[in-house]
């Protein structure tokens, strides 16, 4: 995994080969096959007491100087400064099963203070 803009800076985002492959297929369908194409990962705290996080993905546009770019399995994922703290120990995957099809973002390490969310939220 590589990150920019500072080679010493890293985030704990894991990208599965399945997610990278599916994202590259979607980017190609949008005509975005060059090295600058990628996904932007957005993560923000929801407005509930448990501090649950809402994640989102979109096509990456311009990369700001404060963004971190994670490159894994040939996929670029752009993470803005406000989202960095929420992607530590998170896995980006793509699933296609009986529940549906799509990208998932899931914490890979349970945090000690997590006891469940009373507002019905989850980490996908």
Which features does this protein show?
Hypothetical Protein Aq_1857, Chain: A; 124 residues; disordered C terminus; 7 strands; 4-stranded mixed sheet; mainly beta
How are the elements arranged and paired?
Layout: E1 13-15, H1 17-29, E2 39-45, E3 53-59, E4 68-72, E5 75-79, E6 90-97, E7 100-107
Parallel strand pairs: 1-6, 2-5
Antiparallel strand pairs: 2-3, 4-5, 6-7
Kindly describe this structure.
With 124 residues, this protein is mainly beta. The protein has one domain: Hypothetical Protein Aq_1857, Chain: A (Sandwich), CATH 2.60.300.12. Helix content is 10%, strand content 35%. It has one helix at 17-29, and strands spanning 13-15, 39-45, 53-59, 68-72, 75-79, 90-97, 100-107. The protein has a 4-stranded mixed β-sheet. The chain is globular, with a radius of gyration of 15 Å.
Kindly report the name of the CATH homologous superfamily.
Answer: HesB-like domain
**What's the structural domain tally?**
1
The CATH class name reads: Mainly Beta
Give the strand tally: 7
Rg is 15 Å
Amount of beta strand: 25-35%
Return residue spans where pLDDT drops below 50 for at least 5 consecutive residues: 118-124
Structural class: mainly beta
Average pLDDT rating:
79
Short account of what is shown:
By secondary structure, the protein is mainly β.
